[in-house]
User: What shape does this take?
Amino acid sequence: MKDVEIKKYYREKINELKNHNKLYFEKSSPKISDKEYDEIKKEILDLENKFSFLKSSSSPSNSLGFAPSKNFIKSTHRVKMLSLSNAFGIKDLENFEKKIFNYLNKRIDIEYSVEPKIDGISASLTYKNGLLVMGTSRGDGTTGEVITENLKTINDIPHKITNKDFPKDIDIRGEVFIEKDDFKKLKNDFANPRNAASGSLRQKNPLETKKIPLNFIAYTYGYFESNKIKKQSDFLISLKKWGFKINEHNKVLKTIKDLEIFHKQFENDRFNLKYDVDGLVYKINNLDLQNRLGFTANSPRWAIAHKFSADSAYSIIKDINIQVGRTGALTPVARIKPVNIGGVVVSNATLHNEDEIIRKDIRLGDTVKVERAGDVIPHVVLVDLKKRKKESKKFVFPKKCPCGFDTIKEFNKFTKKYDAVRRCPDRGFECEKIAVEKIKHFISKEALNIDGLGKKVVENFWNLKLIRYPQDIFNLDYAKISKFDGWGDLSVSNLKYSIDQSKKVSLDRFIYSIGIRHIGIENAKLLAEYTKSITNFLNLIKNKKFNEFLNIDGIGETQINSLKKFFENKSNYKIIEKLSSMLNISDLKLNKDGKLLNNTFMFTGKLSNMSRAEAKSLIEENSGSVVSSVNKKLKYLIIGEKPTNRKVQKAKELGIKILSQKEWLNLLN
Ligand code: IVH
Assistant: This one.
């Protein structure tokens, strides 16, 4: 056959495959068997191997063109799936307990449920009247993907539970993972066991999932109708009775000292386990206490993951590059000779900042110790000075940002010291490096969560000049993109779908997505709760009423200054205005049927048996709000021990009702 004929035949096969992909992934109505489909794939791959001139972006050899469909139906979790904060040593554990004591405003003896932290993928299983009706991935914690059929292929997951005491309506949560030995057999396809579990769970075709030996271990619940169980350890026992697998190493322990001893022992023993474990999870065993403690923005106050210590290795620094972050921080990154650290090949390690390079005297060509723990970015710990070359010179940290602007070190008013971090001053979207990071932040999980548009794609589109500002994402030329290398009709339609989906966003997420320094998720939520709608938010900004935000408990001078600085730049305001006209930004869903609706409160003095934080969440759970200054808008001033006289005086002058802690709690029964 001539080359042209081979090419023609190859193209026909590719088109054939594309059609079957479409029938399968988009229409869910395959016209051929899996075997026939695999044969077409094999023929294409054989042809490519034989004739090096054959290439197509839709080839099965190209993972992008053949990525599993990302268009799973999404579902909002009835109870959020949050992550855990990490502890790396006894200090962190002591801090964890201290925060609990502060929140409760007293010291107590704590009993912990201790559970190995398997490094897999979490999943939530909804059972109604004993039947598994839905299974979802964690997703962004608020919304997950419906992957019921895939989860049903896992042998450890019961489809029907007949025990009399099994709750009528419950979400069972746990970890999907693959054992180390099984992973070895698949090694060519996935980087590590965690990726293997996640990749196979998200196959559009459950038959593909079934091929991978996945396991499920249950450890907690989400929604739980009329829960009568009092302890996490009892819940685990119930899980076992209902037919779930639970971890055989679960334990109940009492003091930090005991936790520490068990951690040490388990850290050594973990290599004998059949699966990867990256730490231990400690949960307060008393479920009533768990409820009282509640959550911060991302994680529960009642649990923590105690990680195992980092793996480390020595390597050589080949180069030092400067990366610019979203807030303009210049981070030096060492490009090192690739080295295997605890099963992962590492070729980059962070050097943190300019001061750290000076302190450790890190130079090009140095032999350095690099550490890596779990999913934390690897970092350089020290230099092996014995191996340093005589001619090596100190590293001079650049004073200019790669964009060309001069950088600065900020002076901290409180510590009276210059910042360790050098920054490119944020001039809106003028610094190209900051701009691209801002767009990456805009699409990230906790912001607009555009999952078809990853960080790599943003960089790619940036280089192709398809995007310069966040709003450009909503005006992409899909026809043009489908012609790019690595893009097929399927991946473009996935992209369009997830971009369209992201247009509906809540106010707090939107404020967070803007990427204003010092406005993280928690603060974005406070601003959203206060302003209630995007119109109000923009009005306050437009009229420069930044000081109004000082009414919000939790927002201080740092945040106000950052907001002012951000919006001093006219182009920033224009971008936000433009985005607000393109997106459907929903008002924050507030709990509107509580007893304290439309009532504002403020505290002065120390409360007994309860911290301010807990008091605030009690008020908010009952639809009230907490403010931080005495003015006409305040309805009740709650007085604890040793109140500030000035505040009480002012409240009296303004005729504001004054309540003792007891009177206030009586309002709530
Ligand atoms: S409890 C809010 N228990 O760790 C409670 N999580 O960083 C969070 N994990 O997404 C879950 N073993 O994937 C819990 N015994 C265990 C766990 C566990 C592993 C994972 C899970 C979760 C992540 C939290």
Q: What stands out?
A: The longest helix spans residues 3-26. The chain is about 35% helix and 20% strand. The chain has six domains: 3-50, 74-307, 312-394, 432-502, 506-586, 600-667. The CA atoms of residues 313 and 370 lie 5 Å apart.
